[in-house]
Specification:
Blueprint (H helix, E strand, L loop, with lengths): L8 H21 L16 E5 L5 E4 L11 H5 L3 H34 L10 H11 L18 H9 L4 H21 L7
C-alpha cells in the first residue's frame, strides 16, 4: 500500500513563485544590486573576468542564508512575522552578494591596472586620476552614465568637501577628452 503524502505541490509551487517575486522585487530596489543586470546560469566552475595582462577567474560561490520563523507564528499564519522572516532572508542573501561582487570588482580592477590609491589624498584629485585611467564608454547622447559606489560615511565626507573650481574644470576636461577618444575609436559606418 502506498504511503499517503502530505506535500501540497500547488502550495510549494506558489511559495516558490512568491519567493522568486519577492527576491526580484527587493533586488530591483537595492541601490547597488538593482543596477546590475543578472542572468540565470547553469554551470559550475569559474567565470573568466579578465583575460590579460593578469588572468582573473572567479569561482561560482554558494550563498547560504537562514530562514527562521517561530512555530507559533507559522501555526497562527502571522503574515507580519512571515514577511519579516522573508525580508531578513533576502537581506542576508544580498549582503553576501554585495560582498562577493565587491571582491570580484576589486580583483578585476587590480588585474587590469585601474586601481587608484586615494588614501591620504584629496578625493577629487584621486577621482580625476580614476577618470584618466579608466576606459569610458558613452551613449548616443554623449553621457557616460558611470556611478561611484561609496561607503555611506565616505560619501558624507566627500559631500562636505566639494571639488574646487579648478578640480571641477580638470574633471570636465578629462571627461570631454575621454568622450572624444571614445567617438574617434567607435565605428561610424552606416549600412544602407
Amino acid at each position: 500500500m502506498a504511503r499517503p503524502s502530505f506535500r501540497l505541490h500547488e502550495y510549494d509551487s506558489a511559495m516558490a513563485r512568491l519567493m522568486g517575486e519577492i527576491r526580484e522585487g527587493l533586488l530591483e530596489h537595492d541601490p547597488l544590486l538593482g543596477k546590475i543586470r543578472s542572468e540565470v546560469v547553469s554551470h559550475g566552475g569559474t567565470t573568466r573576468q579578465v583575460t590579460g595582462p593578469n588572468v582573473v577567474e572567479t569561482p561560482m560561490v554558494k550563498s547560504t542564508a537562514m530562514f527562521e520563523i517561530n512555530k507559533e507564528a507559522f501555526l497562527e499564519t502571522d503574515t507580519q512575522k512571515f514577511a519579516e522572516s522573508i525580508l531578513n532572508l533576502f537581506e542576508s542573501f544580498h549582503r553576501e552578494q554585495k560582498k562577493y561582487l565587491l571582491e570580484v570588482v576589486s580583483k578585476t580592477t587590480e588585474a587590469v591596472g585601474n586601481v587608484v590609491d586615494a588614501h591620504n589624498r584629496n578625493f577629487w584629485d584621486a577621482y580625476l586620476e580614476m577618470i584618466e585611467t579608466t576606459e569610458m564608454q558613452f551613449d548616443e547622447h554623449g553621457n557616460h552614465n558611470y556611478q561611484i559606489v561609496l561607503h555611506p560615511e565616505t560619501a558624507k565626507k566627500i559631500q562636505a568637501t566639494p571639488p574646487t573650481e579648478e578640480q571641477s574644470k580638470r574633471i570636465e576636461e578629462a571627461i570631454e577628452r575621454k568622450r572624444r577618444e571614445y567617438y574617434e575609436r567607435k565605428p561610424s559606418r552606416k549600412l544602407s
